Amino acid sequence: MLRYGIISEKDPREIVLLRGTGCFYKKCAFCDYHLDACLDDDENVALNKSVLKQVTGVYGNLEVINSGSFHELGERTLSLIRETAREKGIKMLHFEAHYLVRDKIAGLRSFFSGIEVRMRVGLETFDENLREGYLKKGMPGVTPEEVARYFEEANFLVGVKGQTVDMILRDVELGLRYFKRITLNVMCDNTTPVKPDKEVIAEFMKEIYPKYILDNRVDILIHNTDFTVGTPE
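The structure assignment produced for this chain is given below.
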């Protein structure tokens, strides 16, 4: 599996897909991403070290993703990331976290003192009925203002049963209001019971995609491997 890539358009950055112990939550109905995990910290550190060696610092901007939240990478891998960032002149780091571990973010920012840290949350949608009733995200009653207090970036899911174009458009508009950047992830078939709704995706591609594909604050992933990482070597 490819775990290093370069994103050259919009917000140019390097990206690494690292491995940790796996998502603590594992309840999102649409996600099997947590399967990329290992409980052996020595094995994870060895793998992550080999991936981080590929970072060049070409843009001074590095996105770190893993199958869960940043803290599941472990202290040794986080130290490797910090060493790499300092050696390669990385000025900005992007990490992901579930909203439920928001209280750990301040510690992460302190750990990477001197480097700007931007946090991304998998929000999926502002529609609470869809997000909690169907997608089981685990964020009931959370307001956009509360999320934006901790996170600068957000992921949104597109193309599931129960969505409409108006709902997706509202997510995009609110996302751009509250966050510096957003990513729209088109639902892809996986091992979960949640399947892509082809009609919703077709409407999205016709009505919304053309409007935002050139927006520098919006990344749109038609396939979950469009950033190259996660694809077979």
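Interim note for the steering committee: Residues 75-88 form the longest helix (14 residues). The beta strands are 4-7, 13-17, 61-65, 92-96, 116-124, 153-158, 181-186, 218-221.
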